[in-house]
Amino acid sequence: MAVQVFIDGEAGTTGLQIRERLESRADINLISIDPARRKDEAARAEALNAADVAILCLPDEAAREAVSLIRNGRTKVIDASTAYRTATGWTYGFAELRPGQREAIRSARFVSNPGCYPTGFLALIRPLVAAGLVPADWPLTVNAVSGYSGGGKAMIAEFEHVGAENYTRTPLRIYATNLTHKHVPEMQAHAGLAHPPLFSPAVGRYAQGMLVEVPLQLFALPGRPTLEQVQATLSAAYEGERFVTVASLAECAAVKTLDPEGLNGTNGLKLFVFGNAAVGQARLVALLDNLGKGASGAAVQNLNLLAGLDEGAGLQSLPGSN
């Protein structure tokens, strides 16, 4: 029997991409409501309660409201907002985060989909903290750039609608200059850090794709880890994973530049350890599609786990794979 799925907020960027990944699958039946009634509380409540799995692609407050409309003890929820990413009673939906996380998602009822930036940051840093190579109280910096699709409809219109009042030709801009960003709490919490990382995000003039970078002064770390130790620790953490891969040091040494659009359309996440052994410095970089593993792809992966389906159904890990 097909799994009954309702996407609340399917008209948004994330919702549309989730729907595209699901609508041709025979094992999924998408519950829809009349577009004219998508803001009708009664219509939404009916759909939410009819679903085996509800996927919320809504602003934080609207996501909380949607959860309150579920009045049965059966419907499972995947929330793509920031409302529940550090909340008690919710399971963090990053299957590769740590040993046992995948099993926790499978047995959960409420799953919070990770943010795009935290997905890259946590993939790089969580294993190093767990292994003791990076102390939990170490001051960390995160530099990142995303395509403008991560800003939703308003930002997409700003970059794409030529002639619109707020249309911009800006090639790249930084933001969150007050050093507050909604993704920082989940970065700190799920990496097991004593302090929030210093997060420096930017948006570029391209639609989607993302680079997340964490620079490390290896010579200053207590154990003075080598590039080989860092790469080996990451490789061991993701051994056998189909969606997270770690480049070898030889591959990293051959890379002269990295395209943030390199994994677009996939649910893949690739990690790189660039560095200079002579001076004891490293640049850890995560490459992902902010609308793939950073949003819609992750939601589908979590849906597959919650519904007891093949985890990779409907998803592509790396270009050219199935």
What does this structure look like?
This protein has 322 residues and is of the alpha/beta class. The chain folds into two domains: 3-113 and 294-306, 3-Layer(aba) Sandwich (Rossmann fold), CATH 3.40.50; 116-290, Dihydrodipicolinate Reductase, domain 2. Helix content is 31%, strand content 21%. The chain is built from ten helices and 13 strands. The chain has helices spanning 13-22, 41-50, 60-69, 101-106, 116-130, 152-160, 184-191, 227-237, 249-254, 292-306; strands at 3-8, 28-31, 53-56, 76-79, 91-92, 110-112, 141-147, 172-174, 198-204, 210-217, 244-246, 269-276, 281-288. Strands 8-9-7-10-13-12-11 form a seven-stranded mixed sheet. Strands 2-1-3-4-6-5 form a six-stranded parallel sheet, sandwiched between helices. Strand 3 (53-56), helix 3 and strand 4 form a beta-alpha-beta unit.
- CATH level 1 name of the largest domain: Alpha Beta
Structure annotation, total helices: 10
Count the domains.
2
Strand order of the largest sheet: 8-9-7-10-13-12-11
Q: What structural class should be given to the helix and strand makeup? A: alpha/beta
The first-to-last residue Cα distance is 24 Å
Radius of gyration (Å): 20 Å
Instruction: Please name the fourth-level CATH homologous superfamily of the largest domain.
Output: Dihydrodipicolinate Reductase, domain 2
